[in-house]
């Protein structure tokens, strides 16, 4: 037995509701099951329950065993003083309030259908599972229900990202421009160099970026230098030497400290994603646009955002991927696919978080933008597609990733609309 199953049973009334009795044989009549609480405190708020003819209004707490009340030290927590009913799977000891009156206990195991318990066990049985628990039944879920669940999951993912964004906002003393800079740099680094680029962004005083926005060579030199990409004394390339000299000058001028910076890597990266190319593109973004934050966060359409990202790496990189080694000529501009990743992972989350922090609602606008972008391609998306759940756009692909990470992978099937709907079919 799992506690989340007890929550599910109580929330959706999947139990016998007549002829209920407490462990002391007092008749129980449930007038209102209450509101499910997923935060700290009792599991269900504002329930109304008639016990032995007396109507009580208060909260309901649920456990596998009655003794869990003491194991969790609820007797010492003021949040639990208004518990009117303790609902358990198995009663193993009476529990008492501070005034020594016994809290009524309802033992559920005799009031639940064995079919429901068996269906729950099958749902969580991983013996024949390849990808997710409900893979054999998910294609039977009502499409309208699924679409609504995906929209909720997308906002849930935005909320989760908002927590990370607000942490950076606090660290930067409410400098939203620095917040965007940190997150852009992190996502320019992708999975392999994301942490490295993020460490550079955090270590670099953004006032220096503002001061150098008229000189791309200087801004590049700062980024390359902090990344440790200007440390090779054997390279005699003129551009490299100019960057290295500029960095030494600026490092002394602004007292730049490289402590804690993670050096970026090249291994397993396609050349267009080399840190040299991506850092140059960031430098050119910030020298092309002096007000990157206001342009990106104030954009009302995807096209406006695309126009801001119409930048390339510096001319030197037209025939280089690394310093001192020439390659076939090609302009290293940002591709639409890469810009889409930046929009999905940086611009829309920051736009949503900034608006919420400012007391505004841009939910519909963000939804519209996310729905206009192509879905991502990865193993999680491919796994769901094989099961018949085929995301149509980035909103749905982000939602599916959220579902997989926060529900499927953690066996939280009963907190998932899909898992709940499958169990609710059981008579």
Descriptive notes:
- The chain contains 17 helices and 9 strands.
- It has 427 residues and is of the alpha+beta class.
- Among the domains are: 3-112, no CATH class; 172-334, no CATH class.
- The strands form 2 sheets. Strands 1, 2, 3, 4, 5, 6 and 7 form a 7-stranded mixed β-sheet that branches. Strands 8-9 form a two-stranded antiparallel ribbon.
- β5, α2 and β6 (83-90) form a beta-alpha-beta unit.
- α4 packs across α13 and α5 packs antiparallel against α6.
- The longest helix is centred in the middle third of the chain and has 29 residues, at 143-171.
- The radius of gyration is 28 Å and the shape is elongated.
- The mean pLDDT is 94.
Provide keyphrases for this structure:
9 strands; two-stranded antiparallel sheet; 7-stranded mixed sheet; 427 residues; 17 helices; alpha+beta
Itemize the secondary structure elements and their pairings.
Elements: H1 3-11, E1 20-21, E2 27-32, E3 35-36, E4 44-51, E5 54-65, H2 68-71, E6 83-90, E7 105-107, H3 114-123, H4 143-171, H5 176-188, H6 190-203, H7 206-211, H8 216-226, H9 238-254, H10 275-288, H11 292-297, H12 302-308, E8 320-322, E9 325-326, H13 336-357, H14 363-371, H15 379-386, H16 394-408, H17 417-424
Parallel strand pairs: 5-6, 6-7
Antiparallel strand pairs: 1-2, 2-4, 3-4, 4-5, 8-9
């Amino acid at each position: 037995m799992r506690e989340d199953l007890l929550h599910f049973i109580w929330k959706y009334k999947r139990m016998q509701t007549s002829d209920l009795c407490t462990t002391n044989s007092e008749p129980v009549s449930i007038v209102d099951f209450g509101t499910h609480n997923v935060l700290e405190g009792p599991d269900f708020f504002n329930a109304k329950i008639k016990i032995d003819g007396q109507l009580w209004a208060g909260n309901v707490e649920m456990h596998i065993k009655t003794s869990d009340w003491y194991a969790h030290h609820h007797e010492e927590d003021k949040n639990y003083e208004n518990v009117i009913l303790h609902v358990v799977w198995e009663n193993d000891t009476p529990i008492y309030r501070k005034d020594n009156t016994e809290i009524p206990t309802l033992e559920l195991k005799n009031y639940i259908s064995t079919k429901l318990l068996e269906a729950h066990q099958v749902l969580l049985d991983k013996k024949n599972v390849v990808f997710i628990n409900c893979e054999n039944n998910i294609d039977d879920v009502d499409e309208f229900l699924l679409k609504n669940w995906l929209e909720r999951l997308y906002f849930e993912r935005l909320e989760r990202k908002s927590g990370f964004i607000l942490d950076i906002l606090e660290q930067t003393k409410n400098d939203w421009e620095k917040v965007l800079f940190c997150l852009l740099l992190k996502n320019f680094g992708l999975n392999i160099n994301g942490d490295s680029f993020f460490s550079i962004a955090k270590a670099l005083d953004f006032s220096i970026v503002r001061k150098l926005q008229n000189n791309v060579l200087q801004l590049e030199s700062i980024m390359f230098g902090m990344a440790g990409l200007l440390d090779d004394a054997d390279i005699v390339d003129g551009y490299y030497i100019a960057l290295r000299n500029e960095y030494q000058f600026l490092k002394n001028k602004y007292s730049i400290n490289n402590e804690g910076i993670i050096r970026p890597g090249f291994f397993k990266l396609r050349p267009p994603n080399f840190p040299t190319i991506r850092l140059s593109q960031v430098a050119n973004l910030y020298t092309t646009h002096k007000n990157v934050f206001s342009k990106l966060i104030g954009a009302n359409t995807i096209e406006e955002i695309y126009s801001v990202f119409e930048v390339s790496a510096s001319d030197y990189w037209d025939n280089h991927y690394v310093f001192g080694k020439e390659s076939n000529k090609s302009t290293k501009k940002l591709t639409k696919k890469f810009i889409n990743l930046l929009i999905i992972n940086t611009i829309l989350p920051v736009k949503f978080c900034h608006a919420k922090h400012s007391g505004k609602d841009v939910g519909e606008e963000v939804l519209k933008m996310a729905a206009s972008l192509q879905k991502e391609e990865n193993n999680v998306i491919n796994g769901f597609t094989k099961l018949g759940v085929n995301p149509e756009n980035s909103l749905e692909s982000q939602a599916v990733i959220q579902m997989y990470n926060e529900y499927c992978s953690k066996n939280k099937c009963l907190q998932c609309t899909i898992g709940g709907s499958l169990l609710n079919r059981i008579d």
